[in-house]
Amino acid sequence: MYGTLGDFDELEREAGKRGIRVVMDLVLNHTSNQHEWFVDSRQSRASAHRDWYIWRDGKGPDHPPNNWESIFGGSAWKFDPVTSQYYYHRFYPEQPDLNWRNPAVEKAMFDVTRWWYRRGVAGFRLDAVSNLFEDPALRDNPLLPGVNNFGDPRMEDRYNDHLSEVHGILRDLRKVADEYSAALIGETWAGTAAELKQYYGDHGDELQMPMDLAFTKIKTLSAPEFREHIAGVDAGGSWPVYVISNHDIVRSYVRYGDGQHNDAIAKLMAGLYLTLRGTPIMYYGEEIGMENNDPLRKEDVKDPIGKVGWPIEKGRDGERTPMQWDDSPNAGFTGGKPWLTVSPSFKTHNVTAELKDPNSVLNFYKQLLAARRGNSALLDGDYISIHPDDPHVLSYLRRTASQTVLVVLNFSADPQVVTFDFSAQGLASAKPHTLLSTMPTREEPNFTHFSLEPFAVYIGEVVK
Q1: How confident is the model at residue 183 (pLDDT cuts 50, 70, 90)?
Q2: Contact 361, 289 (CB under 8 A)
Q3: 161 among known catalytic residues
């Protein structure tokens, strides 16, 4: 469906010529129900691959083994009449979970990574990595008040998410990756900075880059909320990996936009996650200000989540629409019929149009990435919070032994004025030298009366 292995090898070669390394997505938690392992597994209770998945008897007729729920609604257990047992699926019934307590599964999956490393893959983004293990006693999860978007009881996933055994697998997976100098990026969905830290490993021997997805859960443009979370992650001492949007989350352009300053806010968010200490992961379309195009009718929904949960849960189609290259039909993405309908915003927010507009979101991203790449403080410097109590302005220094950069972000729709005193950093008489700003070009700002326009971004060197 997505091309041949020869196509992939060509991609590797052409990417290498351009200094680009290819990282693949790897699903460790489950396979398709049409995978040869599962096809064999369901044939009989004595099948060679039976214990490669999680099969259990129910508590009685039409009663699954426990109360665990699928992330996508309903029971996480599917009854299979072939052998009169249930199998466990954390996600869709078509995605049965592998049994990572079986050493044969571990060996087979580790060999999958070796096969791709030998083809030149630089590493993996590990899908749903926190879900690899389940409580062997199958204890019921504790219930919480209310219901979720699917109408199911809310529950704490105490016995089928973030179990401690995951970390042993990640340490061993890392040993395999280290044989090939490969990188492991984790979709960990850690709830706190402390939980996120666990995925680095006590000795930095698990994931080099567990994704910090907490930004996607901050619902408003709140300088204090972002500041507090950044401080928690940065204090962990490991290398942060910041994400503001992905294929499962309403786009940041929609989450934070106010309908009037959306492009300015898109630049503000870029100014944040592309200047923090760590690695930013960009979701396609962020760099042009793409917005959601959610289905308006149930019959238009493609995502099974939306079909089950409509109208409360509309699914994830809206954030997965085609990349907007130009203003031709289907935004230049295809001459055929795309799987999902292109957002109407493609007429104004597309690559071709924004390349011509010096004030576009895309050109700001290009300038910002160029500034980042050419500045050692933005690449590798420490993070030092400034004005920790300001309710509207988030500001910080990125600093190396030889260079200091100031980042100032106005999270408010109103102008703001702040004062900077860098005497504590040994820069009492320092002056600013602007690297990039969303405000009109003018004289260098004054540290004693630093004026900011609504949603402004300022990035400048602090020069002695």
Answers
A1: very high
A2: yes
A3: no
